[in-house]
Amino acid sequence: MEQIDPETGSDPTTQQQYVGLAWDAASRAAQLAEHAERAARNPDKQAKAAALAAAGALWADVSRSYSAIVAVLPDGTPEA
Prior knowledge:
The chain is mostly helical. The chain is built from two helices and no strands. It has helices at residues 12-41, 46-72. The longest helix is centred in the N-terminal third of the chain and has 30 residues, at 12-41. The model has no long low-confidence stretch (mean pLDDT 86).
């Protein structure tokens, strides 16, 4: 069970976990975009380019979703 910081009322690790998930998903999206670009330039692999681009777009959406979660979570910083 995760611990809540009594001073801030938030779980300081949750925000960092979601930031990590967002970065991981963004990295996956970038990798797939690179694969799609290479496939599009290779006549033997052009048929795979659209599927790779779609998968990259999906991972980019996942990254944006995690980023949106981070934006609404308390940051763990006590109010002054």
